[in-house]
Design brief:
Blueprint: E1 2-6, H1 14-25, E2 32-36, H2 38-47, H3 53-59, H4 70-76, H5 82-88, H6 100-105, E3 109-116, E4 122-126, H7 136-141, E5 151-153, E6 156-160, H8 161-164, H9 169-174, E7 179-183, H10 195-204, H11 209-234, E8 239-241, H12 256-269, H13 272-279
Parallel strand pairs: 1-2, 1-7, 2-3, 7-8
Antiparallel strand pairs: 3-4, 3-6, 5-6
Helix pairs in contact: 1-2, 1-12, 10-11
Length: 280
């Protein structure tokens, strides 16, 4: 069973969009996909066979003030307008509609990683939690603390999936994946440092202390999961695809040159997939 993990990473995950466009061009279809934050959006378009769709979100829509701006933050308390991104743009009558029917017809299992704002624990949403023109679970997974207030879905607040389970390898293995592709948006041996996490945790600690604790721990969690990925890759049990250089790119960097370079890098790095699948 072929599984794909896309860890997200804001606009850096245009790299993952390049990887997945290559897989679509080569008719390489996963049996299982688990996405974190922007990785969940990448995965939904991949399973809907909408080649090139994700690229426009990173390289066109992200430059609009409706998508992300301080104006949004002043009006709503959230820098990213998730309802614009996954609602206005993605609805059936929107500018770039998500092909919900094709997505649901794809037999692959799909998981979206979010974080329960009250407990700080990961939550795994599935296809059944999505309906036509109701893509709130994608919004929960992309709700970055410090940038957005928590997204409320069915009465419960959620934060970004990259707090609770950053590289969900164990979830994929538990599901039965014996071939696994892990898409990272940092260099493969770039271990996280806690500096940024500490400042963000202070921002949310007053209302969501357990999420703040999880943010403080996520450096260690990511690094342990990355070590596991590197170890399994040495054993030939998975393939890591990661950019070798992100040019000091931050989570929400808007630089057309860097974005295009990362997309092309993802596409060309994905050439490794065929050899991996042949030898796995």
């Amino acid at each position: 069973m072929l599984g794909i993990i896309d860890v997200g990473g804001g606009t850096r995950d245009i790299y993952g969009a390049g990887v997945l466009d290559y897989l679509m061009d080569q008719n390489i279809n996963a049996d299982f996909f688990i996405g974190v934050s922007a990785g969940s959006a990448n995965g939904s378009s991949y399973l809907a066979h909408q080649r090139g769709r994700n690229y426009k979100f990173y390289n066109e829509y992200a430059f609009r003030k409706e998508y992300m701006s301080f104006g949004n933050f002043l009006k709503t308390g959230s820098y990213l307008d998730l309802n614009y991104i996954y609602g206005t743009l993605c609805r059936a009558e929107g500018e770039n509609p998500f092909d919900y029917n094709a997505f649901m017809d794809n037999p692959a299992c799909f998981y979206i990683v979010s974080t329960d704002a009250f407990s700080g624990e990961p939550v795994y949403f599935e296809k059944k939690d999505m309906r036509q023109d109701h893509y709130e679970t994608l919004m929960t997974s992309s709700c970055v603390p410090g940038i957005n207030k928590p997204y409320v879905f069915k009465g419960k607040p959620y934060f970004d999936g990259g707090i609770g389970d950053l590289i969900p390898i164990k979830k994929a293995l538990d599901h039965g994946c014996d071939k696994l592709i892990v898409i990272l948006t940092r260099p493969r041996k770039a271990f996280r440092k806690p500096k940024t996490d500490v400042s963000v945790s202070k921002f949310v600690a007053l209302k969501y202390p357990y999420t703040a604790d999880a943010i403080c721990r996520r450096c260690d969690v990511y690094n342990e999961e990355l070590k596991l990925a590197l170890s399994l890759e040495e054993e030939g049990k998975l393939l890591i695809l990661a950019p070798d250089d992100i040019s000091n790119m931050k989570t929400l960097t808007k630089d057309v040159t860097i974005l295009n370079r990362l997309y092309r890098k993802g596409y060309t790095d994905a050439l490794k997939v065929k050899d991996y699948l042949k030898n796995a």
